[in-house]
Amino acid sequence: MIQTYRPQWKGDFERLNRAWIEKLFVMEPQDYQLFNDPENEVIQGDGMIFFILEEGSPVATAGVKPYGEHGFELVKMAVDEKARGKGYARQLCMHAIDFAKQKGKEFIVLYTHSSLTPALALYKSLGFENVEVENGKYARADVKMQLNIWKVTKNP
């Protein structure tokens, strides 16, 4: 069952994400800013951070933060290495889409890297499409994808 953010999970949100960021890339200034204050950087406004727990401890997370007036940005999705292969990333994405619908949003964007092929395959299977990525948003992002939420008719 997916849980919403609780202050005691702030460290888990950072831990889960730093694991993949530091393994594959480098931390960027906006990463530090977001991890230091997820309540204001993600949740303030309509945003939310979601978690999946195993035995009471967070093993997967993703957030949605406001992106303009009509959208969300899917941010900081991470699954603990020991919990991979259980469909948690798909569950979190589907939950984010449902959450965006409930909030009346029109679209979700995300930024990723072309080397993250499993993530790209997941996003495409959910209906995300490549759009032009603007320079300077994130140093490690060379791919931007967008999903028009109201066109989602399948439940993959």
From TrEMBL:
Q: Which GO terms describe its molecular function?
A: N-acetyltransferase activity
Note the Gene3D superfamilies from the entry.
3.40.630.30
Instruction: Determine the domain of life of the protein's source.
Output: Bacteria
Tell me the ranges covered by the N-acetyltransferase domain, including all copies: 1-150
Keyword check for Transferase, yes or no.
Answer: yes
Q: Which UniProt keywords apply?
A: Transferase
Q: Which InterPro entries match?
A: Acyl_CoA_acyltransferase (IPR016181), GNAT_dom (IPR000182), NAT_camello-type (IPR050769)
One Pfam family in the UniProt entry:
Acetyltransf_1
Q: Which PANTHER family match?
A: GNAT FAMILY N-ACETYLTRANSFERASE, LD18367P
What protein name is recorded for this chain?
A: GCN5-related N-acetyltransferase
Native organism is Leadbetterella byssophila (strain DSM 17132 / JCM 16389 / KACC 11308 / NBRC 106382 / 4M15)
Taxonomic classification: Bacteria, Pseudomonadati, Bacteroidota, Cytophagia, Cytophagales
